[in-house]
Every structure is written in C-alpha cells, then in structure tokens.
Amino acid sequence: MTSEPTQITAAMGGNAEVVEALGRRYEAGFVTDIETDYLPPGLSEDIVRQLSALKQEPEWMTEWRLEAYRHWLTMPTPDWAKLKLTPIDYQSISYYAAPKQGPKSLADVDPKLLVTYEKLGVPLHERARLAGVAVDAVFDSVSVGTTFRKELAEAGVIFCSMSEAIREHPERVRQYLGSVVPTGDNYFAALNSAVFSDGSFVFIPKGVRCPMELSTYFRINAINTGQFERTLIVCEDDAYVSYLEGCTAPMRDENQLHAAVVELVALEGAQIKYSTVQNWYPGDENGVGGIYNFVTKRGDCRGDDSKISWTQVETGSAITWKYPSVVLRGDRSVGEFYSVALTHHHQQADTGTKMIHIGKGTKSKIVSKGISAGRSSNSYRGLVKVEKGAEGARNYTQCDSLLIGKQCGAHTFPYMEVKNPSAIIEHEATTSKISDDQMFYCRSRGIAEEDAVSMIVDGFCKQVFRELPMEFAVEAKKLLEVSLEGAVG
Amino acid sequence: MSEPATLPLVSSLLDAALPPSGLAWLDTARRENSQAFAAGGLPDTRVEAWKYTALRALGQRRFAKGDAAAQSRAVDASTLALPGIDGARLVFVNGVFRDDLSALESLPEGLTLQPLSQALQGDPEPLRFALSRHYRGAGDAFARINAANASDGVVLRVAAHAKIAVPVQLVFVGAAAETDLAWHGRNVVILGEGSSLSLVEQHAAASEQAHLATLVSDIELGERASLRHVVLQNAAVGASLIRRSSLRLQAHAQATMHVLELGGALVRHDLQVELAGNGSRLDTRGIFMPRSRQHIDTQLAIRHQALHTVSSSHWRGVANDRARGVFRGAILVAPGADGSDASLSNKNLLLSPGAEIDTKPELEIYADEVKAAHGATVGQLDPHSLFYLQSRGIPQAEARALLTAAFCRAVLDDLPDQPLREHLAALVLAHLPNT
User: Fold this and answer.
1) Beta strand B96-97 with B89-93: parallel, antiparallel or unpaired?
2) What gap in Å lies between CA A207 and CA A50, rounded to an integer?
3) Residues 368 through 397 of chain A touching chain B, CB cutoff 8 Å
4) Is the CB of A405 inside 8 Å of chain B's CB atoms?
5) A404 interface with B at CB cutoff 8 Å
6) How many Cβ contacts (< 8 angstroms) between chains A and B?
7) Which ranges of A198-330 would DSSP assign to H, the alpha helix?
8) Between B352, B370, B379, which is nearest A424 by CB?
9) Which residue of A has its CA nearest to B324?
10) B363 and A401 in contact by Cβ < 8 A?
11) Rounded distance between C-alpha atoms, residue A245 and residue A275, angstroms
C-alpha cells in the first residue's frame, strides 16, 4: 500500500503497465466491494478513482472527477450564508454506499412518519417505499419503469440514470456535463463533481415534446442515488420537457449531507420546466438531526427564445442552501423562478435565485414566498444581473415573507447589478405576519384556528402553486398544512 | 489582502503618528486603531460591505498627512453660504478648523459648538466614550485610520429642552495644496433630552485637488430629541471622501435626514442608525447622482431595537456617463422589536450605456409584529412622458432633464426649509447633462 502514491502519479503520466496494474487491483477491489458494497469512509484521490472504477466509468470521467477533487482541495469552506451549522467532517463520510438496510416492515417505522403519510393520503405500498422498507412484491416498479421506457424511446427521449448515460451515451454526457456548473464552480459543486454517485440524465432531441412529465419518483434507479446526486437535462432546439423531482411525502434518510448538482441546457426555442418538492427529514422539534441540503442548480438558456422555469416547494431539511439560477444567454430567452420555502422548529433555509441577463430582450420573473414558524430562519438571497449587452432586459421580482411566531426570522437579500440603461429591473419585498384582522374574520366565521392559518398560508402561496403540475399542487398544499402543525396556538 | 502593509495608501496613511495628546486613553485608542489598520489593511471586494467598491486604484495612491498651511489656504467664504442659513458656522479647511471662516459668536442658548481640537484641551472626559472606540469589522479600515489620526472635527451639544431653530452649518472644504493630502475629521453631536436641532453638513471644494478625507460622526439623540439633518456633498470631482455616520435614537426621538451626493471621485457613506428607544423614528431621503467616472456608494443600515420604532427611507440614484452608483439599504428588526414599521425604497435611473447601478435592499426580521417592506427599481425615463413633453414642443434634451429632475425632487419635497429645498433642487438640475 505504501507504493500507491507513486503508482498513481505514474498512471497520470500515462505509463501503460502501471495503468494495467492499477486496473487489475481495482478489479479485485471491485469484487470485494460488491460484497460489502461500500467504500471506506474518507476522501482522497484513491477513493475517487475507486468510485469511478466501481461504476465502470471511462477514463475521461475519472480524470474529470479527479480534476474536480483537486480543485475542491484548494477551496475554502463557504461561510457567507446566514446559517448555523456544525462543520462537516468530509473524511467521515462514505462516498459510495449501496442502499442501506431499512426497517424490516412498516411496524418498525417511526409512527410519526406513518401518521404524516396517512394525512397526505399516500397509498399504502408507497408508504413502505418512502419509509425505506424493502419492497418487492407490493410495488412492481420494474414493470412501471419498462412501460415508460418504451413510450419514451419511441419519442426518441433518453431518460436514464447518470451511470447508465456515461456508459451508453458518453459523447452526449461529455459534451454537456459540467458545461453549466463547471467542476470548480463552488465548494459543494466541486465535491459533487468528484464523488457524485448517480442521478438522472434526460435528453430531448430536436423538436420533440416529451410525451409525459418525467419524474425521479417513478424511476426505479433513482432510489437511493445517494447524497451526491447529479442531474443533467438537455433540450435540443424547440424541444420541451417538464421534470419533477422529489415527492411530497417525507423521505426517511440517514444521510446527513446532500450536495446535489442539477444542470439544465436549453437550446434554441427549447423549454424546460423543472419542479421540485423537497421534503427531506427536517430534524425534530429541538433541531436534532435532519438533512443538510446544499444544492447547486443552474439552467443555461443557450439558444435564442429558450425558456427555463424553476418551481420549488421547500419544506424539508434541517438546512437548505440552494439557488436555482438561469443564465439568459440566448436573445429573448426567459427565466422564471417560483418558490415556496417553509421553515419550522429549528430549520434554516437560505434560498433564492440568480438571473444573469446576457442576451438581448431577455426576461426573468422571480416570485418567492417564505414562511417561517417556530424558531426557524428563512432567507431569500437573489441576484439579478444585467450585462452590458442585454439590451431591453426585463426583470420583476417579488419576495414576500410570512412570520408565524415570535422567535423566527425572515430575511431578504436581493442583489441587483445593472449595466445596461435600457433594462428595467423591479424588486419588491414585504414581511408581515398573519394579521389579527384576517384571523378574527376567519374565526368569527367558525373556522378553527389551524384551518384559518393554513387557508391564509395557502392563499399566500397560490401564485407559486399555480405553477406546479396539477397533482403536485394538491399535495403541496396538504404538505404545508402538515408542516405547519403546531405552529399556532 | 496578502500584503496589506505594502499598499502605498496604507503606508502613507500610517506615516508619522500624531504627537501625544496628553490624554493616555486617547493615545492608547489611537495607537491600537493604527495597529489594527496596519494589520488589516484595506478591504477588498470579497468583503461583503465593499463588494461593489473596489479600492485598488485608491490603494496605489499616496497622500501627504494633514495640512500645516491650512490656516492660510485661500477660501472664498461667500461660496460656502447657503440660502436661509445664517446661524452658527464651523468651517474646516483641509481638515483644520478655521476660526476666520467660522461664525461662533452669539451662539443661541443651550448650544455648545466648538472644534474637537479645542474641546480636547478643555474638558475631554465627555468625549472619552466616543473617541476610545475600537473598530473590529472586516470593512472598518477607514474608521480605524480615522480613529488613529483624527485630531479635529466638530463637537456639538444641545442642552436638554433647548430648541435650536436656526440651522447650524458644518462645512468641510478641500483647498488647493502643494500635494494631495489625506485628512481625518471626527464629529460628536449630542442632543439632550427633549431638545431639537437643525443641522446642515456641507462638503465643498475650493479647488479641484484630489485629496482623501475620512469623516466619522457619532450623533446621539436623547429622549424626545429631534434632529433635522441636511447633507450637501459637493466635494471636488477628484476627491475621495469616506464617511461614516452613526446615529442612535433614544425613546421617542426623531431624526430626519436629507442627503444630496453630487461631488467626489470615490465617495462612500456608511449611515448606521440604531433605533434604540421605544417609539423612535427615522426618516431618510437621499439622492446620488454620479456622472463622468464618479463612484458613489451609500450603505444605509437601520436597526430597529425597540418597540414601535418607525423608519422610512426613500433614495433615488441617477447614473450617467461611465459612473457607478451603489446603494445598500439594510433594515434589521431585532428580536422583541414588536410594532416596528420599516419601509425603504431605492429607485434608480440609468442614463447611459457605460453607467452602472448596483443596489441591494435587505430585510432581516427577527420579530413578528412587524410591518416591513422594501422596493428597488432600475430603469430609464418613461418614454410616454418624454413623448408627451416633446409633443408639447419641449426639446428632447430638456424634456429628459425635466423628468430626471422631477424624479429626484420627489424625495426633497418633505424638506420643510423652503429656500434650502429650492437651492438643492437647483443643484440637482444643474448637475444634470444637457441643461
């Protein structure tokens, strides 16, 4: 083992023999790793190589990961967000783990979780799945997967896991991967680039309107893609896709850190609609446990007249740190961001968007609704940037915060940088609590306090829910009700 | 930031410390702030508070320290006069108090007004708290060097329940000198309980010389005190002017500020207000109009610390040519500051393709019985309004100037002093292109 570093250096120098020797060693490693199915905790070039080998990736991919890893080493941990978090020990994380052993049956699952499923009306077989109970006979995911696949293949749509895409469509992946979020973009993106385990790849060819809404939820191989997900969606000229991520029911998950990267590429006239409902485990009432959700999401309107729209409902995670952005490169391209972020107990959310106007006549619209309850903290942080050449750029931003309770915080940090005199940029923000008048009105009509709050919150979020696909919108509304339980009174 | 001490600006400002003041606490504070400045150097744009104001160019310059010949610099007193302002006046030329230009005789009852250099020789004890401050923030470089080097400035006190109706005029003039100078002014203004004061702060130029000035002001308002403060910044086009004003309002105190930023090459104003007492109220109105290659940066930070505090801020920016206007308006409502009502708006006009506006309104809310709102816009003149004026036979250039002036004037409307208001409006109009 002591000779390892020299071997690796030699391999990088292109010594064929050593590469072969290394390959053999990894072969062996591969076999044993299948048995135990995880890599030892820790992060090093060696781990990155092993991970890449485990996933049978081509060499360019390994190099790409290594480059990201080396860059990551040089980067300081970001500390600018308004977040209170315990430092993450990156050496204690195992960077490749097969699906963990979940509870044996629903009887072993936290009863609180089951009550929540009941309220959300999640079908029984899905409850088991969400809670992480191993399901086989109950829910035939394989057949569901295959039916969809056939239909999609007929339309020419590629929709598969990232690992599969790297194997089956390497040229397409290579062309687009990291072209929106470069490996060295930020601390967590670099980490993700180095160690991402899996994710989704979507490719919609020219002129195709994807026949159905794609969703990670219905894709078998999306289960337990792990804490470092990588998603890449490419829409060729005049293509259209609507992509749904996540599900409305809370996900049981033992992972502490999620550092995902999502890249969207829209070529001329293409449209991508990306909807997220994020409901990872938020920790308990005392702020113990919960997921750190640090995500880099960015869309690139590369072609003229393209459009990218982000819609997100964020209710889960102990800490959410994400800014789905759009680079408006093509002339007349459009970026949209609709967000509802709800925090309760000790949750912290720092989320928002960036709209970078580069092309002429580009438009962007931002609607952000933050709801803070309990002792939580909820920040909107956004950037609208108009470059010199963005003639006639237009932006409208609206950020509203609703406070429920005395000890929560709601913050707004919008940045506006304008370098073109023909641009029109507008930003508006308000912060208020549910007014006593509104409450009194509802109560005097015989509406229970909790119902009144959820009605008012629903009205507050309506603008965003309207953007969600139908069935998501219905669930999102219920989800807010559940999440706000105990916030009043 | 790697080798801050090597920057020419830093080393030239640290050159030759002030002579001992005879006050041990003052010398200690000066020394420690000087050391902090030497150690920290200048903030770069990675420091959030300086994100949009790069100090690279300034950091490469050298300035001579203070002006030994300030007493003899030619300044035409008549140019400093403002319409309707004929009360007490304190004038500083290149940072040094000038008795001959000031008007300190027959001060109204309850008003104490003297230069800091004299106040320190008299009874320095009341100044001890303000002058022994340590500045610890990453962006506090200029406050540190000011604390280390300021030897003059304004000490103004209004006795409890005294009403000073005639505006007090404070004038800071940059005059021609053999070389570019750096000077530092330190002001302490204290309004006693139930008193009122009208104050006009003026930054003027008697030459086009590119001096560097830092000015730190602490303004304290006692219970139910009331302050009307007008700032007219018309420094030399080459000057660098870095100001920090800290206001603190006790219960039911009220402060109104009108700020007009016209001059200077690199202008930075940190305006920090603490609404410390229940029911205190702040109104700020401001206009910044950078043109040619000017850079004007205003950083407004308002802290609502007590119950039923109110703040309302309206700021307008007009950027022309290759100029840059920067505005940050941060409102913080502290836990327990229930009943706070905060509003802020910043509207900007970009008049030229080379100009830039960076604006950042912020809300940080930790209480729930709160009304808070902010808005910011960047845009250009309404084409319909322009068309309307042109269709009535008004040439385009004039129509543009009219509309721009009207855009700015809106924030001056509630300035009660009519002659001064008209004067400021005329300055705004004169500052616009094509008139």
Assistant:
1) antiparallel
2) 40
3) 386, 388
4) yes
5) yes
6) 108
7) none
8) B379
9) A419
10) yes
11) 6
What is the DSSP pairing of strand B356-365 with strand A409-418?
Answer: antiparallel
A378 chain-B contacts, CB cut-off 8 A: none
Report the SS3 class of residue B263.
coil
B341 in contact with chain A, both atoms CB, cutoff 8 A: no
* CA–CA separation, B413 and B409 (whole Å): 6
Q: How far is B242 from chain A (nearest CA, A)?
A: 22
B352 CB near a chain A CB, below 8 Å?
yes
Dihedral (C-alpha) B394, B398, B400, B404: value to the nearest 10 degrees? -120
Q: Which of A386, A406, A418 to mutate to test the interface with B (most CBs of B within 10 A)?
A: A418
CA distance to A394, A416, B217, B385, B412, per residue, from B377 (Å): 11, 9, 30, 18, 19
Residue type, A128: A
Per-residue pLDDT of chain A (489 residues; tens, 9 = 90+): 333 333 333 333 344 444 344 433 333 333 333 334 567 778 899 989 988 988 889 999 999 999 999 999 999 888 777 677 777 888 877 777 654 445 556 666 666 666 666 666 655 555 555 555 443 323 333 444 555 777 888 899 998 888 889 989 999 999 999 999 999 899 999 999 999 887 889 999 999 999 888 876 543 333 444 578 899 999 999 999 999 887 555 555 555 788 889 999 999 999 999 998 888 778 777 777 778 888 999 999 999 999 999 999 998 888 898 999 999 999 999 999 999 999 988 899 999 999 999 999 999 999 999 999 989 999 999 999 999 999 999 999 999 999 988 888 999 999 999 999 999 999 999 988 888 888 899 999 999 988 898 889 989 998 898 888 776 777 788 888 877 777 664
**pTM for this entry:** 0.86
Chain A residues closer than 8 Å to B331 by CB = none
DSSP A280: B
- Fill in the DSSP letter of residue A209: B
Which residue's entry shows tokens 């306090």?
A: A449
Dig out the tokens for A154 from the structure: 């007929």
Residues B49, B138 contacting (CB under 8 angstroms):
yes
**Of B357, B371, B375, which has the smallest distance from its Cβ to A428's Cβ?**
B375
CB contact under 8 A, B350 and A405: no
Kindly state the greatest CA–CA separation across chain A: 83
Q: How far is CA A281 from the centre of its chain?
A: 14
Contact assignment for B370 to A431 by CB distance below 8 Å: yes
Closest of A171, A165, A156 to residue A199, by C-alpha: A165
- Structure-token pair, residue A48: 């990155």
pLDDT tens for A262-293 read 999 999 999 999 998 888 778 777 777 778 88
